[in-house]
Design a protein that fits this description.
CNF1/YfiH-like putative cysteine hydrolases; globular; about 260 residues; four-stranded mixed beta sheet
Amino acid sequence: MITLDALTAGRGVRHAFFTRRGGVSKGPFESLNCGFGSADLAENVTRNRAIAVSRLGLAADRLVTSRQIHSAVVVIVEQPWHREDAPSADAMVARVPGVALGVLAADCAPVLLHDPLARVIGAAHAGWRGALGGVIEATVARMAAIGAEPCRIHAGIGPCIGAASYEVGPEFPRPIMAEDASTKAYFTPAPRGGHWMFDLAAYVEYRLGRAGVLTVQRAHHDTAAEEEGFFSYRRACLRGETAYGLGLSAIALEE
């Protein structure tokens, strides 16, 4: 698993961006697939999630994830819920110790946040659509609503698809640059004419800064290029594969 100094610097919190290693799943889901939304066996996903959250020192039933829909919807977590009761949302915030906020991704950027003074945490799922739609700003605002200060928040951007792997079509940059022309910096010309390479992690970091977050650290891993370490939707699509796993990132306040 991967941890970032920006988050470990604040005492009283545990976090991890888990790789795909160390689980029980087989085939395209090998091995730590934590997504019930995949075509993997449910019992394998259940075991994998228990394995992952145990590395944070918590029981399996202390992990909460949502039904991710590439939105800017954020929910406040006050206690764990059953999987069938999970809300449709792409971010969660909490100030309850002993509950792990988890996000699932296979190229999108997982973002974990912590205000060590207010003891408020957050976890967001930020693909390009969610980031453009304001999921980062909404998460910071909801953290502020329960006591955090944006300038005190430490944020970690986990492994996601890298700029060298993320080719987008000619129409893709338009809605992003329409909001702020400076975001042109996150696009470079692709080898294929008229296409672009997009730096998702840099764009997410820009959105964090715009929300008032001063301390941001990235995990410099490319999920699409590093097959042994990470699941990737883009890699599966390029190969014509319909099955792929989902990696877990999680953060929890210590009791």
